[in-house]
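User: Quick sanity check before I run a bigger batch. Here is a single chain. Can you write out its predicted 3D structure?
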Amino acid sequence: MIRIELDEAALGATRLATSPLRDAFCALHLQLPQRNPSWPYQEWVGHAREVWREDDRLRPLWDLLAEGRYEVSDFLMPRPVGTVDVYEELDLLRATDPDVVREQAAVCYPGMAEEPFLRPYLTDPQAACAALADAYAAWWEEAIAPYWPVMRRLVEDEVLVRARTFATEGVDALFGGLESRGRWERPVLELTKYIDAEYAAGERRLVLVPLVFAEGCRLYSIDDPEVLTVSFQARGAGVLRERPAGPAGGGDRLGLLLGRGRAAVLRELDGPLTTHGLADRLGLAPSTVSEHLSLLADADVVTRHRVGRSVYYQLTDTGRSLLALLAGEGVLTAAV
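Assistant: Done. Predicted structure follows.
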């Protein structure tokens, strides 16, 4: 169990940030042979495992993620700076201080200094980090890049919604719905992990990073002396999923009442989403989704609110009741 104590100063310094490189790292873990990914990721994993097996450019990653080598240093993932450009993060990786690389490699892989996979990080850290960044770039291009436009929208939406929650409802609302493996009891944020550690208020500022591939692993980064980084699952990972057949014939009462397209929009609103976010998830034109949302809003089935330039939609109590009664979905008491 990880316990992070947050006083008022620490809470005020808490930030949310995007990090495509962290998503790429978690995606690596998700497709490893010993993993059994859940349904939303299975279609993606089939392709990703082919890339992992066959692309020799990934060798530096193969070496670091070989069986039993799961204690990886933060130099694999630089401090999140809120960018949506993975190549900006890879430039930061290439520029990592060589002394930091040597120090962290020795700590994370004790007694392994003579192992061939580790020696480059100790003898020529700059070249080793450059090779690692190149391997990451190859993995990104083959396994992640085709999905990134949709993933980017999901994580950016998550940051906007969470930031709005933090600003309007306070930290209790932010942490309360943040992470299924975490628990917030003021002033302590607890994270379920296989190691035990405690951090007192004021030691470091907290950065929260939403990830689409967080099922691969929840990242908890501690090597940075100024920042404690914690990842969490962004909503909408279903964009990567195989789509099962919907209810057939007269079994889809919601579809018969509203029409299949409008019913699909209603079912997909498990959290605040934009028109484009819904369109990505459903494979529909944004104009079509916008028309459905307008009618659903007129019927008080969904509500809308603006955050910056984006408009977010979510279910009203009427919408949740409709799903519960006609679609048999247990969302009647779901949190808004």
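Strands lie at 2-5, 15-16, 182-185, 188-191, 197-199, 205-211, 220-221, 227-233, 302-307, 310-315.

User: Great, the batch can go ahead then.
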